[in-house]
Amino acid sequence: MTAATHSTLFPQVPDSADAxxxxxDPEQREVALALGGPVCVxxxxxxxxxxxxxxxxxxxxxxxxxxxxxxxxxxxxNRAAGEMRGRLRQLGATGVQARxxxxxxxxxxxxxxxxxxxxxLPRLVERKxxxxxxxAARCGIRLDRNExxxxxxxxxWAKVTQTVPADYPAAVAKTQRDAPRDPAELSQIYAxxxxxxxxRSVIDFEDVLLLTVGILQDRHDIADHxxxxxQHFVVDEYQDVSPLQQRLLDLWLGDRDDLCVVGDAGxxxxxxxxxxxxxxxxxxxxxxxxxxxxxxxDYRSTPQVVRLANGLLGQARGxxxxxxxxxxxxxxxxxxxxxxxxxxxxxxxxxxxxxxRDLIAAGxxxxxxxxxxxxxxxSEVYEQALADAGVPYQLRGAERFFDRPEVRExxxxxxxxxxxxxNDSLLDGAxxxxxxxxxxxxxxxxxxxxxxGSGAVRDRWESLAALVRLAEDFEQAKPGATLSDLVAxxxxxxxxxxxxxxxxxxxxxxxxxxxxEWDAAFVVGLTEGMMPIAYAKTDEQIEEExxxxxxxxxxxxxxxxxxxxxxxxxxxxxxxxxxxxLNGLRPGSAAVGPRGGAGGGGxxxxxxxxxxxxxxxxxxxxxxxxxxxxxxxxxRTLTEAGEMKLMRCEDCxxxxxxxxxxRLREWRADRAKEISQPAYCVFTDKTLMAIAEAAPxxxxxxxxxxxxxxRKLTRFGADVLAICAGRTVGHEQAERDGxx
Length: 740
Known about the structure:
This protein is α/β, with parallel strands linked by helices. It is built from 28 helices and 18 strands.
């Protein structure tokens, strides 16, 4: 028995409860039949977890065991909730609520607010950035665009971890969180932000959860009302639950345990938002009598892709790694993953675009191909390369399909044509449903051939073409269906946000690709400093980066390509290295990690401008010397004095604290004036940069920075450490003895 990856868009509704179980594998069937008590489903990537839990709900409803209106299924994205509603509808389980945590809480808050508080619910602010900027300004703190984004994210983290402004600095210290700026300043901005919201009677998305929790805690009558309404809970992606969401779930449950959770600790990639896999990993501790089912049969990816995925997690460390799932592919053999090294980033983008064009020419639909990267800023060079190659693309994270203007216009036109029926001259000569749709949409910009190039015109055409393909599938599944039937189907899909597939190569960050899959995935930019990202410093942060790459790898069904560039720009120094996570997995690399890991296999394909030769060749190692200094980002041996002071290559990403650097420069100028010496005699610019990047908090951490040494540590160390700690340093002290 297998779980089909590509099922028809319009399957026949099962004619009985038992028919709902048809096609499930033994473990999925066990999930579907476990309808009582606490249930924990540990589901690896591609193992059919959504299939298992939707069939579980549908079987319970169709068998009369569950009342649909008493079931609440929650997940983390509108897309996932929409997919769940669509699947439940296709299984004949209508009436079940499938929502995100926020949308479920918002409905309850809107309903109970007049009774619990009185009056109307405060207006919901969808984007808090402007309020955060104003709060910072009122505190006399100037934030640039990146700092504003990071500060906003930090406020969101504090709220979902139920940390109030006054406790934020202590929470940062306790969790060893790498705050984007001084915690005291962030606490001040956070407090002012909350004050501005109160003054203007507005709430944000985190408040929706906080206020719902508050009402359910304080009003037992309202909590009882909710518990009578919802008696059976299903939580998808349980590894991403935050402490606040878990608190809300506990209040929904009360003293009951009719709960089914589904997750995979190996796909925990949102800890920066407050998510933690602890609730999943400790589920058996909280519920000793829980039924635990493991899904490891991978129906998505070929054995070659699964082997690499297992190898990645095989080298992992930490608590989540101890609970890793060893996937077993259920598909036929496919091509080995391709590892490609390029001379520079434009060459990497151009080479990727060429390979994508070849795949499309070989019959792989553009909509079944994705380019995945670590940060969104990497997309621009791939957008340009795909446009130059004449390959259509779409950016993941754009507006919802049914919210697009052209889709709304198309819906109005189709609805009008359906009402007019045979009286609409547009439909003259159209002898089936697809031809009717093509005729109507031709007035809105659809043509039988796509427009050349990319941009808004191509995006509009792709949206309309998706509707045409949907009509073709609908006709095939339901012969004789009318235009009115299709309009009704579109209305139901819009309500469920169950969008059809748009044909264009997807460009997406690894985070936004979670939960999606394609026939071919190109995971790009895999250099040290980008994967893992430069600011991932702790073991826990590094392991989350490894899991992020695992998520990217497991998006591929058949074709998987992993690539990196030796330099940022053409002609640049080729001193970058491929990510450490592929060591021991890609050809020509040495194995690392506590357990090694399965070999990834496969050949290596080199880009046209690498300047290297031989499968798996690395940048030539420099002659060994005593005590080599290595780049702390990419690991390359450093030989230039300036780079050795920074402990990184000039081209590698910097995580320097700009504000700290400026404070050090001001202090240096004052000290140089006091001792009547040039500023560089105190510390050179490079040494100051190295200090600002390392932000040492002890003499031991400061003295090892190149350019400091024991003499300058004795003379300037106390001042530097005080500045790094955010304390004010007086400059009236007497000049110390001895040369600088």
